[in-house]
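Margin note: ligand = flavin mononucleotide.
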Amino acid sequence: MKGDFVDARKHQSGYDEGHACRFPASPCDGKIKLPRPIFDAFKTQIADVLLRVFHKRRFIILDLMMPPSPNRDIARTWKYHNATKHSEWSIRASPHYLDWQNHPFPFKIYTTIDPNPLPKDADQTGIVALSAIGASSVPGDAEKVPALGDLARILYFSAGITKKKTYAGGEIYFRAASCTGALYEFELYLVCNDLPDWKAGVYHFSPGDFALRLLRAGDFRGVLVHATASESSIARAPAIIVCAGTYWRNSWKYRTRTYRHFGWDNGTILANMLAMASALRLPAKVVLGFVDSEVNALLDLDTSREVAFSMVSLGRINGESPATPRELSKLNFPTIPLSKSEIDYPGLREIHEASSLETREEVAEWRSAASRWERAAARATRVRQGDASRGGGRVRDSGPTDPIEQVILRRGSTRKFERQPITLDQLLTILTTSTQPIWPGFSLLNNLYLIINAVDGLAPGAYYYHVATADLELLKSGNFRNEARYLGLQQDLPGDAAADVFFLAPLDPILDVFGNRGYRVTQLEAGMLGGKIYLAAYALRLGATGLTFFDDDVTQFFSPHAAGKSATFLVALGKVRKPPQ
Ligand SMILES: Cc1cc2nc3c(=O)[nH]c(=O)nc-3n(C[C@H](O)[C@H](O)[C@H](O)COP(=O)(O)O)c2cc1C
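Resulting structure:
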């Protein structure tokens, strides 16, 4: 099967996989904590006592005023990240055989809710793919309210079924965005006000029958405004899409490493979504700062199995919706079981809880951390600007002008690359298009390192890509096809590709500024960048594929430049070798 890419090594490493069990286990990190409800009940009294102490001994209050937020206990991210690294040794030491009899069903199906079919006959936007992928924002401040047809196009070209393939073992329904193992663990939900041709509500998007199912009737956007501490794009959005990941759908194959996959697989969906929103001239913004429990409650998620991960504001209205926290009833709508049984990996819930934000105040504080990140990034850039040699920020390659929809329909992960060169213009077009700002106001968290195998006009070797100036800095020259093959989990694809783009992130300063939530953002950003690279390569009629990697070997290969950074994603690109007919 196509998604089963580890072939002879039908296993992925995991560290604490021995803790996985078929019954939900309560996460325990061995620390004694004051349970949150107990703390809340006594908060006023505790604050009173502390205020008195404050007058006498100023330093005490800083430590005791609030229980430490889980988000600030960054040792929990390091524990997760280090324990889920791949290495040649870990792959051998922890074999994992796929239980095909228990392969999770890739759709969430509510059995008792009637579908509201979405329109399938919308025109193409006609917007050239590269310009849609590269657009970082829709200019202007005018009101923009999407019609149902716009939402249908956004949902279809982000998470809809675009191909069906039949194998001996059954059928696979491939989706618009790439996804590890073709397991499609992300569900999309629409939260909207009354639109010109659609009623306000909370809906689940079902790609199987291309329909929306109503979970809650009425305008619930205020819950998201509240959860995001009145984030301005959410407060002014007529429609918001929330993306939620289901652990088991992906952990069936990837076990505890699934939380990294959440970032990547959600990120590729968002890359498509932003490109489509831009083609439809709809303002769109990815928002990651929210009170997790409030969003999960709105969608009525069973948080031991599925959790909200990101949200995207779509459109813009004049005036802001007020933040309206609401008592939300449990819905308990039945859904089709995904497998005969599910295996619980407690490490997933542990890292999710560690990166959760608990109050509006914490969300607001977290968002303001972005300015500190900008200062840290500026310092790092000053230190790093070395002897960059090429590029210069030109927007290149007039190339093919296929509209974004055609490119998304054409996209698929390349299974075999020709060992033939691409041009430097093509490479730089892909890089500049894909690295336009994602987060308004602050720079990318991930850095880009490349192995160049065959690019006309560029010596083979290892490079660092300066996003701000579009320059490629040579780190070491040489033919590194074998190294590329090894680093990409000993798969042929990165060895044969013309270029391999590795993302590495300086996790220390990221976690310092953003706490554990910074880890979610970093992985999601890597997925978004990777998703954009996929699209940009296909826009140029080249091929691309996401890949997994040997974590520490990647860092070592690009060191000393990359010392201290962590590998987050790998995309190989080049000319596609067509399968024999
Ligand atoms: C983060 C990520 C990692 C991936 N890793 C691999 C990999 O290591 N080897 C591989 O052959 N394919 C890999 N893929 C490609 C997926 O198998 C592919 O996206 C999936 O089968 C769906 O097919 P499609 O991309 O052609 O639609 C990866 C995809 C993503 C998004």
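The CA atoms of residues 127 and 403 lie 5 Å apart.
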